[in-house]
Amino acid sequence: MGKRILVTGGAGFLGAHLCERLIKEGNDVICLDNLFTGNKDNIRHLLGNQYFEFIRHDIVQSIILEVDQIYNLACPASPIHYQYNPIKTTKTSVLGAMNMLGLAKRVHARILQASTSEVYGDPEVHPQPESYRGCVNPIGIRSCYDEGKRVAETLFFDYHRMHGVEIKVMRIFNTYGPKMHPSDGRVVSNFIVQALRGDDITIYGDGSQTRSFCYVDDLIEGMVRLMNSRAEFTGPVNIGNPSEFTIKQLAELVIKLTGSSSKLVYRPLPSDDPLQRKPVIDLAKKELDWEPTVPLEEGLLKTIEYFKTIQ
Predict the structure, then answer these.
(1) Are 109 and 103 in contact (CB under 8 A)?
(2) What are the C-alpha distances in Å from 191 to residues 11, 42, 182, 198, 214?
(3) Strands 244-246 and 210-212
(4) Could you confirm whether 145 is annotated as catalytic?
(5) Which pTM value belongs to this model?
(6) Residues 6+ apart with CB under 8 A from 94
(7) For residue range 279-303, what is the model confidence (pLDDT) as tens digits?
């Protein structure tokens, strides 16, 4: 018997992949999205499915639904989008979390928060375990997202302690794949779009800063496993790929895989941009029997093929 599952931000990059996965598993899925950064094209193929329902709604406003599980993914997640209206970004993280936790409490639903590696800020500990409390600037241009997600985690654990709400908190590290927004400003989509156009590839800083890139299918697998893990395991848990690459290595690999003639150009590093990102995933291995399986080159080839179809 399938569950009735709410996915907020369900028309976004991760949300659309999650909706597909949950429907394939025989669940009824309600996709909630205000389409600020989500895109109806991501879910258009699902709109005629009897097990899928789309509601255009902003989770800053409360909503009453009957569901068994809630995946709270709603929030702009790329710097270009979350800095466009930083007050709105904070409200989405904080008021949105309160509204979804209130709904979970009312209907006794289990709820998962899509948190982020950005709660670690520009880390002084490398790689980052869940026990690390982070180094975050509370008044910088990225704070609306970083601190919004940190407060959301606080709310999740307070609702769990005070009201017994069944929570799951996952900290998502850099994820890429088909359905990424071509102009979201993230490094993978930026590099692929520039390479396919033959434009110069823009590297901010000297390219020595590192990131860990997780293919979307691996990420969604970890998310579903976390939601359905034992009730006592709340997280937070890192979900990401521990293979670490410099930004310059990524750019060179994208040029190679696209066969592009693009050249590398360097620009100043933006304020508070973290220099290192790499998850410790021991907890995910132990509790969820999860680790990523898709190598970067394989995942990039699939992502490049997708971007070729939308150019």
Answers:
(1) yes
(2) 23, 21, 10, 10, 16
(3) antiparallel
(4) yes
(5) 0.94
(6) 148, 151, 152, 155
(7) 999 999 999 999 999 999 999 999 9
Confidence of residue 272 (pLDDT cuts 50, 70, 90): low
Closest by CA position to 89, among listed 49, 136, 46, 34: 34
Judge whether 201 and 194 are in contact, CB under 8 Å: yes
Region of 277 (left: φ > 0; alpha: ψ -120 to 50; beta: rest) is: beta
pLDDT at 183: 81
pLDDT (0 to 100) of residue 52: 98
Residues 6+ apart with CB under 8 A from 27: 2, 3, 4, 5, 51
What single DSSP character describes residue 269?
Answer: P
User: Is the confidence at residue 76, as pLDDT, over 90?
Assistant: no
Residues 6+ positions from 301 with CB-CB distance below 8 Å: 257
The tokens describing 179, both together, are: 């359905």
* Tally of CB atoms within 10 A around 183: 12
Place of tokens 């823009």: 202
Which residues pair with residue 5 across a beta bridge? 29, 69
Instruction: Fill in the DSSP letter of residue 275.
Output: S
Write the CB contacts of 249 (distance below 8 Å, at least 6 apart in sequence).
Answer: none
pLDDT score of 188 more than 80: yes
Q: Which amino acid is at 203?
A: I
Say which of 145, 159, 176, 215 is annotated catalytic: 145
- The DSSP result for 17-63, as a single string, is HHHHHHHHTT-EEEEEE--SS--GGGTGGGTT-TTEEEEE--TTS--
From the number of C-beta atoms within 10 Å of its C-beta (0-12, 13-18, 19+), residue 306 rates as middle
